Amino acid sequence: MVLALVGCATTFETVYVPAENKGWQVGSGTNRPGEKLVEFVPTEESISNWSRMFTIQFLEGTRDSPQKVMEALQARMRAHCRDAQWATISQNASSVTYQWSVSNCAGQMDQIEIARLLSGNDGVHRIAFVRKGLDFAPGEKEKWLEAFSKAYVLKDGRPVVVTR
């Protein structure tokens, strides 16, 4: 059965991601002014000891395009991990999907991530799947890319038409 994972609900917007939620639990969350974050980990793992993580983040009030937000994230990552690998998978005016990985970087475990940034009217939403190590399990990347491609921003239970 496929269920929706919906996180970071605020008085503003949330994001709908059509993904299987069986076997996942909330590992941690943040509800600070300007940022809402929910991190899901496998039920047999914890936020301090995980192999895979699914994240929903809301950057409330961010007016930059998803591409600009991605460029800022990339610059921050490369400032810390000079050899980080980064690739844009797809983009349009209201979203960008990308992949990055790091290995042999001080203070960072080897990991690989796919993520999508989506514009809303109240900010930018980030959904991501990360795995420790340098490779995804067979079919894993495709499964998450499919779910991410079908994700959309909601407000008051209805899809958002971006007007900014």
Explained architecture:
- The protein is of the alpha+beta class and 164 residues long.
- It is built from 2 helices and 11 strands, in the order E-E-E-E-E-H-E-E-E-E-H-E-E.
- It has helices at 66-80, 140-149, and strands spanning 4-7, 14-18, 24-32, 35-42, 52-60, 85-92, 95-102, 111-119, 123-132, 152-155, 158-159.
- The chain has a 7-stranded antiparallel beta sheet with strand order 3-4-5-9-8-7-6, with helices on both faces. A 4-stranded antiparallel beta sheet has the order 1-2-10-11.
- Residues 1-7 have low confidence and may be disordered.
Principal-axis shape: globular
Q: Tell me about the biggest sheet?
A: 7 strands, antiparallel
User: Could you name the CATH homologous superfamily?
Assistant: Mog1/PsbP, alpha/beta/alpha sandwich
Roughly how much helix do the residues carry, as a percent range? Answer: 10-25%
Total domain modules:
1
Number of helical segments with 4 or more residues: 2
Structural classification: alpha+beta
Percent strand equals over 45%
Low-pLDDT runs: 1-7
CATH topology: Protein Transport Mog1p, Chain A
Distance between the termini: 36 Å
Q: What is the level-2 CATH architecture name?
A: 3-Layer(aba) Sandwich
